[in-house]
Amino acid sequence: MKRILSLFLTLSFATLSLFADEVEFRAKAPAQVIEGKPFQLTYTVNQRGKDFQAPAFDNFEHLAGPYTSTSSSISIVNGHHTSTYTVTYTFTLMGNTAGTYTIPPASIRVSGDTYSSNGVRITVLPPDEPIQSQNTNAPATQQQRQSNSSAQASPGSSDNIFIRTIVSKSKVHEQEALLLSYKLYFANVNVAQFTNNTKLPDFTGFLKQELEQGEIQTELEHYNGRNYQTATLYRTILYPQHSGDIKIDPATFEAVLQVQTRSQVRSIFDDFFGSYTNVTKQLTAPGMTIHVAALPTGKPAGFSGAVGSFTLTPSISTTDLKANEAVTLKLDIQGAGNMKLIKTPAVDWPEGFELYDPKVTNNFRTSANGVSGTKSIEYLAIPRAAGEYTIPPVTFSYYDIHDNAYKTLRTPEYTLHVARGANEAANDNTQPQQFAGTQKEDIKQLGSDIRYIYAGELKTKEGTLTTKKPSPVLFGSAGFYAAYAIPLALAILLFIVFRKRIRENADIRLVRYKRANKVAQRRLKAAKQLLKQNNQSAFYEEIERAALSYLSDRLSIPTAELSKDTIADILRRKNISDELITEVQDVIATAEFARYAPAASDHAQEDLYNRTAELINNLENQKL
User: Fold this and answer.
1) With 184 labelled, which of 176, 380, 481, 566 sits at a CA distance of 20 to 30 A?
2) How far, in whole angstroms, is CA 506 from its chain's centroid?
3) Cα–Cα distance, 165 to 167 (Å, whole number)
């Protein structure tokens, strides 16, 4: 049996090798490293290979490697065979000089063919600058040593964690895009998470276009002589709407930091097994002032505020058509800038054309460089008479940021040759000149669509004349006043009722107080169903919630602040008997203990359910 199994596995691997995946040979290393600190460079290939050739590690010190590791797996699911095989070569390197360097590709032979990996670009950051004392020859005092280690002693200090407000440009023109980012810098501190208590400025004076954030990634950055882990928290594209100095107010963020708590009695194990606590820290990003220059004078006649760099591509569906056939003029405005503010250029159509609203299609992409893409505009028109018509050039004017000048783009002049339509009249002399091109379906019969009020006598179904008019409600009669008084009284009554209900609903405590018994009974009903399903854990949890939610609503205490002692004190002040107070504490304790205790009998669960229902009824009779 073992030989058969071994033969089967050998054949399976041989078969799978025939359908091997495409060779993937990749290099991976950190994008940023610190000068003088080791890092790892790995090369991974997904098939068996040989003659691995590593590149020359110029500008880096080769400390160790390559270390080779392999992994493989095979799985058969529903007759489908899947196998993986990976070989990893690991090098330990160290950068000795700050700068940006590129490590060339490595090579390897797989099945007789040579494959090359990707190159790796690595930025070596300088180390942290030491804190210099005034007398560099004198040894550091105890106070100086404490100052040098203060960053590690106070992980939440402003030196260890802060947020910068970064703008791509501080001087721009009106409608010129600028990128604003809020970037977190932190060192010697563990950032666990960010809260939702983020307050961004209103960006008054700007048109805002937020960028999709995605998952927050961290990277190293050397700033003010120190290396920090950085993460971009928020990015947006801003378009200033007027000239002058526009101020951006500060923004606030909240971060949860994990800080190690140390006991007063120090031991050698504190650094390894010390406990941690979460500390919420508010971070403020400073405000900025953007200097916005007005657009130069001499704006073209067709300028509508477009700023950026654009091209105009026109097209027309046809220039030879018949009357009553549609013609489409399309304009594609491509480029980058304030694309969303571009207005639809006007087309000077000849007289005698039936016009429709332009169809606008936007295909924009928002990136750190701004908004770019294409704005497509389709104009549809229908000539109603034969002849030759000219469509003058359509102009689109904008301010070019790169050339600092206004530019005007024009379409060519189009001449339309409109032939006689099939529905036009055969003889033009039969129609007056002013109605040339009018279709038969355009002429409607007038005068028969008005029905005048009939003022004569009406006939009944039997055919007799009806001359008797219904008696009106006389002014000043009882029926006259009742017709006004009854709706008014009903309106006043409904107003009073609804106002009372609104006031009651506005009092959250009163609403919770009134619905306490109803909520408790609903939870007891749910607990009864869980009891029938033999779901013990959920049953005890629902029983505990029924009792606690009832007491929370009746006593106007948040559930999180409820405790046995608090409940007992409040019930005693309300003159509740000690026997009933003891029963309350016992029911809550039993339910709480049973949630984590071994399984209880069905009889015990039924008894706890009955005790809880009776307890709530007794408390309800006490009118808490």
Assistant:
1) 176
2) 33
3) 7
pLDDT in tens, 546-563: 888 888 887 777 766 677
Backbone angles phi, psi at 415, to 5 degrees: -110, 120
- The CATH code of the domain that includes 19 is 2.60.40.10
Is residue 345 within 8 A of residue 394, CB to CB? The reply is yes
pLDDT above 70 (res 461) = no
Domain coverage including residue 246: 152-292
Residue 164 lies in a domain: yes
The residues near 201 (Cβ < 8 Å, ≥ 6 apart) are 248, 249, 250, 251, 287
Please indicate, yes or no, whether residues 50 and 156 belong to a single structural domain of this protein.
no
User: Using an 8 Å Cβ cutoff, are 28 and 41 in contact?
Assistant: yes
CA 471, CA 474: separation in Å to the nearest integer? 9
**Vertex 106 angle, CA 101 and 112, to 5°:** 165
The Cα-based distances of 624 to 84, 125, 287, 574, 579 in angstroms read 69, 69, 54, 7, 16
Length of the chain: 624
Query: Do 416 and 391 touch, CB atoms closer than 8 A?
Result: yes
Residues 224, 333 within the same domain: no
Site of tokens 């000690």 = 578
Dist. CA 572–CA 13, nearest whole Å = 79
Query: Measuring CA to CA, which residue among 536, 558, 549 is closest to residue 609?
Result: 536
Tokens, residue 9 = 């596995």
> What average pLDDT does this structure show over 114-135?
79
Residue type present at position 283:
L
The residue written with tokens 């990976």 in the block is 86
Whole-number Å distance between alpha carbons of 100 and 256? 34
pTM: 0.54
- Tokens (6 digits) for 88: 């990893």
**Contact predicate 332/374, CB 8 Å:** yes
Q: Tokens representing 69? A: 């590791």
In a domain, 489, yes or no: no
What are the DSSP calls for 195-234, one per residue?
Answer: -S--B----TTEEEEEPP--S--EEEEEETTEEEEEEEEE
Residue 233 contacts residue 280 (beta carbons within 8 Å): no
Residue 593 lies in a domain: yes
275 strand-pairing partners:
261
Give the sign of the dihedral formed by CA 261, CA 263, CA 266, CA 272.
negative
Question: Which residue type sits at 187?
Answer: A
| Residue appearing with tokens 């109605």 | 435
The model's pLDDT over 282-298, given as tens digits with 9 standing for 90+, comes to 899 999 999 999 989 88
Please give the Cα distance from 97 to 449 (Å, whole number): 93
Residue 581 sits at the vertex; the CA angle it makes with 580 and 585, to the nearest 5 degrees, is: 115
Start-to-end Cα distance in the chain? 78
Helices H, strands E: what count in the chain? 10, 33
For the chain, the maximum distance between any two Cα atoms, rounded to a whole number of angstroms, is 129
